[in-house]
Automatic annotation (TrEMBL):
Its main location: membrane. It is found in: Cell membrane. The keyword Transmembrane helix applies. This is Branched-chain amino acid ABC transporter permease. Keywords: Amino-acid transport, Cell membrane, Membrane, Transmembrane, Transmembrane helix, Transport. One of its GO terms (molecular function) is transmembrane transporter activity. Pfam families: BPD_transp_2. GO terms for cellular component: plasma membrane. PANTHER family: ABC TRANSPORTER ATP-BINDING PROTEIN, BRANCHED-CHAIN AMINO ACID TRANSPORT SYSTEM PERMEASE PROTEIN LIVH. The lineage of its organism: Bacteria, Pseudomonadati, Pseudomonadota, Alphaproteobacteria, Rhodobacterales. One of its GO terms (biological process) is amino acid transport.
Length: 293
């Protein structure tokens, strides 16, 4: 079973697992923020991730704005799009069952992907790495950009978790989720806060898309297949658990990478197998109840 497994193969797949886990963690974190604080099942998260990559590509191709500028501009553009989407599509169904938000955001996904595909086609568009080259570690080659993605992802996830869980703003957001009337008595506009929360979660998806553009080709479908995996990550970590989404994202990325080494046939199924086990033995999620209320 272990014949032919070289250090280069093992550590190479481990690196790919950490890279994938970085995207799983960031996307799942944004999804968990939106569901945990707003009770919105945002199926459009993958399309918003794709929009971040496309905005970065458009900024470079048509305006000459490089990656480092797009890293700040594209998430803001996608966040503004999310705010408009929340006001027009999600606000009218705010008091209805979660299923309606799932259906509305799924329909929005189909429209967004269809429009992008109609305009730019289905073929992936290349986006050159802003950090070419890398370092030879002896047992593997470490590209600089992929190292940057991992470090940036960890810092972003940690910073977001600290913001939500350990600041006054975060306490207001959590309180608005449980007792909006009490928060409004302090003069805080809760509906506006929820709109900005959705924009923030969507902006994280856009940020992930910018990070992904040099790693994967930019295409209309780059987020659709990924969303099923991201939902699995959120379910395993605990619906609405931010720290659960982060830790589960990284762990499942590593597990997926190692599975490609030891049992390649099961690499595409291992995350969903773990989700099935989690739903049977820990349906509330592995990290549910670990955060402040």
């Amino acid at each position: 079973m272990f014949d032919g497994i070289t250090p280069q193969l093992l550590f190479g797949q481990l690196l790919i697992g950490v890279i994938n886990g970085s995207f799983y963690a960031m996307l799942a974190m944004g999804l968990a923020i939106i569901f945990g604080l707003m009770h919105v099942v945002n199926f459009a998260h993958g399309a918003q991730y794709m929009l971040g990559a496309f905005v970065a590509w458009l900024l470079l191709t048509h305006l000459g704005i490089p990656y480092w500028g797009a890293l700040f501009i594209a998430p803001v553009v996608v966040a503004i799009f999310g705010i408009v989407m929340e006001r027009l599509l999600l606000k009218p169904i705010a008091n209805l069952d979660h299923l309606y938000s799932l259906l509305v955001t799924y329909a929005a996904t189909l429209v967004i992907e269809g429009l992008i595909r109609q305009q730019y086609g289905s073929t992936g568009l290349p986006y050159n790495s802003p950090l070419p080259g890398g370092v030879n570690l002896g047992f593997m080659f470490m590209p600089w950009y992929r190292l940057w993605v991992v470090v940036f992802s960890v810092v972003t996830c940690l910073g977001t978790w600290l913001l939500i869980e350990h600041t006054k703003l975060g306490s207001y957001l959590r309180a608005a989720n449980e007792s909006p009337e009490i928060v409004e008595s302090f003069g805080i506009n809760v509906p506006r806060m929820m709109t900005l929360t959705y924009g923030f979660g969507v902006g994280l998806a856009g940020l992930s898309g910018v990070l992904a553009a040099p790693v994967y080709q930019v295409s209309p479908s780059m987020g659709s297949g990924l969303m099923i995996t991201i939902f699995a990550v959120v379910v395993i970590g605990g619906m609405g658990s931010i720290i659960g989404a982060i830790l589960t994202g990284y762990l499942l990325g590593i597990v997926e990478g190692l599975t490609k080494v030891f049992y390649p046939e099961g690499a595409g199924l291992v995350i969903f197998f773990i989700m099935l086990l989690a739903l049977i033995f820990r349906p509330s999620g592995l990290f549910s109840g670990t955060e402040k209320s």
